[in-house]
Task: inverse folding
């Protein structure tokens, strides 16, 4: 029995060192050399400051202020509203506020859920209120599905070209740019389908908004 115990202990120690230390460190080392950007989360820096990740959606909003000038809060969460100067990401309902990277989750509601229907109707209403003043011909039937539904992670970094083209009218007006210029940026920051055939083309919202800031000096 003593021999069996000693053998088991040695096996546990050896396997812990190999699989708990050596293997993870080897994989980390290879990834840092072969593809450091992907391994480190595709972080994006501007002027040496971390501003986000290419693969994690984020909110482009401003705090709603009370009459005293302080940010409005509801249950400890700061209330925000979409900044019209920027392209907006897909709807997000993460806990603690939209696009909270620390609380990625899926609603797990079916397409026939009453709550899903209510959420979709609310998102459609908000979308029309924001975009229709800049594109009077816009109707609810023209709104792409990704502008209404949340993604599985609630942190989708991309929007469809259809969504971007609609938002382009607002962004162009707010930043006093020609619509053709904004459409050109959309095309530039649109990624193709994986392997050329899988999935759909997507527009990276963070990269697109950063390009707009560079073009206009961050001013709307």
Result:
């Amino acid at each position: 029995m003593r021999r069996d115990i000693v053998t088991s202990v040695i096996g546990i120690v050896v396997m812990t060192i190999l699989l708990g230390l050596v293997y993870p460190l080897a994989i980390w080392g290879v990834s840092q050399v072969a593809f450091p950007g992907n391994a480190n989360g595709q972080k994006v820096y501007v002027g040496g400051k971390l501003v986000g990740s290419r693969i994690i959606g984020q909110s482009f909003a401003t705090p709603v202020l009370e009459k005293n000038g302080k940010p409005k809060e509801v249950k400890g969460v700061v209330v925000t509203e979409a900044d019209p100067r920027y392209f907006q990401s897909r709807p997000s309902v993460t806990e603690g506020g939209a696009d909270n990277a620390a609380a990625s989750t899926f609603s797990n509601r079916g397409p026939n859920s009453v709550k899903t229907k209510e959420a979709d109707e609310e998102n459609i209403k908000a979308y029309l209120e924001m975009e229709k003043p800049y594109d009077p011909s816009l109707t609810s039937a023209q709104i792409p599905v990704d502008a209404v539904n949340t993604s599985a992670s609630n942190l989708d970094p991309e929007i469809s070209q259809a969504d971007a083209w609609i938002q382009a009218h607002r962004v162009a007006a707010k930043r006093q740019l020609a619509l053709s210029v904004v459409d050109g940026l959309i095309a530039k920051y649109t990624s193709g389908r994986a392997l050329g055939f899988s999935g759909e083309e997507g527009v990276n919202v963070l990269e697109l908004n950063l390009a707009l800031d560079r073009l206009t000096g961050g001013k709307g």
Summary: The mean pLDDT is 86. The helical segments are 2-34, 36-39, 114-131, 161-175, 179-188, 205-216.
